[in-house]
Amino acid sequence: MRKLISYLFISVDGVVETPNRFLREDLYQDLDPLDDTIAEQDAVLLGRKTYEEWSNFWPSSNIEPFATFINNTPKYVASKTLNSLGWSQSSLLSGDLRDEVMALKNKPGKAIGVHGSISLVQTLLDAGLIDELKLVICPAIAGQGRCLFSRDGDPIQLDLQSAQTTPGGLQFLVFRPRA
User: Fold this and answer.
1) I need a surface site. Which of 117, 129, 132, 159 has the fewest CB within 10 A?
2) Exposed, middle or buried: residue 170 (CB in 10 Å: 0-12, 13-18, 19+)?
3) In the 8-state DSSP scheme, what is residue 116?
């Protein structure tokens, strides 16, 4: 079964919304682990909002290596409101999210990445569908914006799988949610 891996930039105070506000440009050279992350994926799952933003930005972007990856990788978009998708290699998932994601995970292939898509990641975490949570903790306090871990319900226990610190102070943490 394929893994479902969430990859998010997060500030020290837990904000994941609009990471370009808090990820300093001088830290971009520290993002080498992103290469490994996208190399292990051959599909991407996006929420509606992220799809709408990214489909307007990435097709004409030259920010590498992510532009080539995201433009040439099959994208699955979870949405109950979209009727059509214009970005190449995009497919709509409009049925039951759990069933649709389990069907994707049961197909042969590499890992499925969930990039951005805050509400989708929260829903997938609550449903127990995320296999790995990869967080890039940026040495900044955003002060405002949506936080990933704003939720009701029981705690979700995580096991730390790996940790890496870059010279500029980025923390690459990989967690596996406990069943």
Assistant:
1) 159
2) buried
3) S
Q: Enter the pTM of the model.
A: 0.90
Of the CA atoms within 13 Å of residue 120, those in its CB half-sphere come to 28
Indicate if the pLDDT at residue 29 is higher than 80.
no
The phi and psi torsions of 95 (rounded to 5 degrees) equal -90, -155
Tokens of 5: 């891996």
pLDDT tops 80 at residue 26: no
Give the residue carrying structure tokens 């997938």. 124
Give, in words, the CATH class of 4-150: alpha beta
How large is the average pLDDT for residues 71-94?
Answer: 95
Q: What is the C-alpha to C-alpha distance for residues 102 and 66, in angstroms, rounded to an integer? A: 26
Q: List, in sequence order, every beta strand (DSSP E) within 57-139.
A: 75-78, 90-93, 111-115, 132-138
